[in-house]
Specification:
alpha/beta; Metallo-beta-lactamase, Chain A; 7-stranded mixed beta sheet; binds fe (ii) ion
Length: 277
């Protein structure tokens, strides 16, 4: 993991998670240094300790006021309990569905939760944050937000793209990466993360992309920070409903892959091998 600044008032806590056959997926959390500091997502469970080290370098636990969980998937809720335990003033921003899903593993005291639906705003002292549902998502609780002071938009899984190497996945700016590769990665991710996209009404889908607009800075949990790229990203994603659906490796492919890793001496005789009598 590494931390860097996406803007004057946003710290990125960047991690890259390798997914076999897919690539190195950026898994970011963000600290928004508002008057009332906000942590956006909490990383992977297996990377809790590293995330907490970087997080408490970026913000005093006594000062942290909000943990905006863009949705309760495992790659976003990793350090949730640790953060709430260490930051007594912090409240978890989610919605009714999110609270229910989170409660499956551990109930959160209601006084530590703030329920916010898309379209509603949170006052964090020097600005308001307005929630919205991104055009693509993989969880019914998903809620990104717009920072009404800076215009920066936090998009959750939307606009994500796995990269060929961990260094690229943790880059300072997606503009440092080859544009074509990024576009292909975003299209792949869209079909992996939102397989329902192939069945949508095309006009309504296009409307949802148009409604996202073209904010200057977009911060996705699964992409390096992006500046001035929104229009290109929306064009890239317009084609996604027509792309072939993602189909993962099946059991035969898995066995073939595993066989390739085994030393010849450990490999069982194949079905076609005849034993000597
Ligand atoms: Fe997700
Ligand atoms: Fe995610």
């Amino acid at each position: 993991m590494r931390s860097h600044h996406a803007t004057n008032d946003v710290t990125v806590l960047a991690h890259a998670e390798e997914i076999p056959g897919i690539g190195h997926l950026p898994v970011n959390a963000f600290v928004l240094h508002a008057e009332q500091p906000v942590l956006v997502d909490t990383g992977m469970p297996a990377r809790r300790e590293e995330l907490l080290d970087l997080l408490w370098d970026a913000v005093d636990p006594a000062a942290l006021r909000w943990v905006w969980l863009t949705h309760p998937d495992a790659d976003h809720r990793g350090a949730r309990d640790d953060v709430l335990a260490a930051a007594p003033q912090a409240r978890l921003v989610t919605n009714f569905i999110g609270m229910g899903i989170l409660g499956i593993t551990r109930q959160i005291p209601p006084e530590r939760v703030f329920l916010l639906n898309p379209g509603q705003s949170l006052d964090v002292g020097d600005r308001t944050l307005t929630g919205f549902r991104p055009p693509l998502f993989d969880n019914p609780a998903t809620c990104g937000f717009r920072d009404d002071r800076t215009g920066v938009v936090f998009t959750s899984d939307f606009l994500g793209g796995p990269q060929p190497a961990a260094e690229a996945a943790m880059a300072d700016d997606v503009g440092d990466l080859p544009e074509r590769e990024v576009a292909a990665a975003q299209q792949l991710w869209a079909t992996v993360d939102s397989p329902w996209v192939h069945g949508v009404d095309r006009t309504r889908y296009a409307d949802s992309l148009a409604a996202f607009g073209t904010p200057d800075v977009v911060l996705s949990t699964h992409l390096p920070p992006a500046r001035g790229r929104s229009a290109a990203f929306l064009e890239t994603l317009t084609a996604v409903p027509e792309l072939p659906p993602f189909v993962g490796p099946d059991q035969a492919a898995l066995e073939a892959l595993l066989a390739g890793f085994e030393a010849p001496a450990q490999r069982p005789a194949s079905a076609g091998t005849r034993a000597n009598a």
